[in-house]
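Anyone? Bumping this.
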Amino acid sequence: MEETTLLDLEPGMRGTVTRFAGTPGFVRKLRTIGIREGKTLTVVAKHPLGGPVVVEVNGREVTLGRGMARRVIVDVVA
Amino acid sequence: MKTVVLMGNPNVGKSGIFSRLTGTRVITSNYPGTTVDVSRGVMRLLDAPAEVIDAPGTYSLTPTNPAEEVATAILAQADLVINVVDATNLERNLYLTLEILERGVPTVVALNLWDEAGHQGITIDVARLEHLLGVPVVPTVGLSGQGIRELVERLSEAAPSGTIRPMSEEERWAAVGRITGAVQTITHRHHTLRDRFAEASIRPVSGFFIALVVIAAAFLAVRAIGEGLISFIFEPLFDLYTPVAMRISDALGPGILHEILIGHLIDGEIDYVQSMGLLTTGLFVPFAMVLPYIVAFYLILSILEDTGYLPRLATLADTFFHRLGMHGYGIIPVFLGFGCNVPGALATRMLETKKQRFIAATLMSLAVPCMAQIAMIFGAIGPFGMRYVVLVFATLAFVYIVVGLLLNRVVPGECPEIFLEIPPYRMPGLRATATKTWMRVRGFIGEAIPYLFLGILLVNLLHAVGFLEWLALVFAPLMEVWLGLPAEATAALLVGFLRKDLAVGMLVPLGMMPEQLVIAVTMLSIYFPCVATFVVLLKELGVRGMIAATGVMVTTALLVGGALRVLLIGF
């Protein structure tokens, strides 16, 4: 398995969250919306020109900015 | 009186349950010291009245934004909590549930959206969940009212949880996983047409075209509803009022009091648009010209909100608005502002930080003309050729972008990235939509109309004592030298504070060249908001914020006006 950031996944790719690179407040924010360690995320869309990333987790879609996506570390799911 | 607090994540149908529990006597107001709206109502609890507070949606009791701070503060007042949980997303919702139960407040859990969970192949063992949480758990469907009666009955059983004890954050996450695993079964289901549409509406290209269609449809609907309300309800009401106003006019006779209350008669009759009196134009503008569009806008906005489309629109718009210091929700004030700047100004509350709200409000006042104004722009400049109309709107768009880019760099403060959940599409309920629209309209009447009235009174007084004429004289050289406009145009720009569309009309008889008209009309849009928007902005931004915004507006207007003059007319 290859470790990378959520931002590096292209639409349609899946990754399992391994850890976060950020403050405790940032980590709590993501966890409470459902993005947690061990969860598998599917990238639904990546908006061009620095736009946000949309991921699916637990059957729900979440929009997050690229700066946040960069701080979510995932294992790529083949 | 006991206080019952509704707590839950955003988008779990809390407001639906709230309107089922309470009757019609609901009050929505700002939570003290914030711009967060909180609804309060009354219900019967054990044969005694109890206050019900609908706390803003929050994911946890460790607040990350003003709305969540308010939610946490409200929880502290609760004698009893109804924790509304989204049955289709139990795992994410349980974190807040555990935090509430750890506080030891008597709680009942409403497992809402129960029907939707069924459709999605999710089953939850309610008895088991009740046992694990140690408090009553009731499946509900807020929209149809299913389960509400049982929810109310079981409020009498509410007691602090017997099983949940305070724990650390890590332990809480572990408990969430354990409980979810024990009570929830998910059967896989196939993708439906709705899923495919949901995905298409959030992808860059398909989403863009869907957004264009939705926005166009929303505009047409607002226009149709607004115009319908005006011609079938509000204008007939004013026709009934006219004889009363005429009688007051006769009783007053000519004089300063008549000038202020009734204004000037046009051909011996009251003209509600032009008389400018407090009891004529002062009543007509807020009630028969602004209010109908406010009602229409809030109705459409509520529907868009309840279907779950807005977070998708915000996602699509984020690329653009993030560069201007806002995030995706920055599109809402623009969208509303094109109808009427007043709800647009109120909608800046959807943004999180002071910096974002300041930028959104300032840019809207600068570069988003309202519908009445747009109509007048077409009417005044259109006859000279559409290229002049295009020139005005292109200039305004340019101003929006350039000033936005600058403000993003200059204004201190944070502009956090977009971060939101995309709820599934839902059919809006008639009852919930109607309640929400009505509460917002009532809020507008209470918050904006009295100030609007005061603003008109002030302008009338200034006019009556000759202050406005004096100002026109003072600014005449500026007009002629800097902007290349005739001195008479000053009066129109000053009236623009009261009514922008009317001011555009005043420019027409001056016989200006089309280039001059373009300059005057663009200036009129940029230099200052109308009095109604001004009072709302003053409340939203505070005095200091408003002074800063005014500085930006006046500076931009003079720079843009001067630049247009050089480009279009020459020195």
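Late reply, but here is one note on the structure posted above: The mean pLDDT of chain B is 84.
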